[in-house]
Amino acid sequence: xxxxxxxxxxxxxxxxxxxxxxxxxxxxxxxxxxxxxxxxxxxxxxxxxxxxxxxxxxxxxxxxxxxxxxxxxxxxxxxxxxxxxxxxxxxxxxxxxxxxxxxxxxxxxxx
Length: 111
What we know:
By secondary structure, the protein is of the alpha+beta class. The protein has one domain (9-86). It contains one helix and five strands. It has one helix at residues 39-52; strands at residues 17-22, 27-30, 56-57, 65-70, 73-80. The chain has a five-stranded antiparallel sheet, covered by helices on one side. Residues 88-111 have low confidence and may be disordered.
């Protein structure tokens, strides 16, 4: 058992953005955020907006993402340090070869 619990919402060194995608990782919505944005608040606000549109969160947002459902439709709300519109291939960047050490495409630096 790990002694350290990874907190994905504590990474403020790189610009992030909330994204909404379907279960096949097809991008539905995204927007960049300023560096050092409060990621917990951003994710809470994104899920609140989804709730206002009739979506229901399936899980808490402790790991930086949440699945949402409305009727039979299911989506993923996620915070990512990679610009999903600039990626090729499957996934939102990591699977497309843009790892955590790659410079972000939304501006800023990776240090």
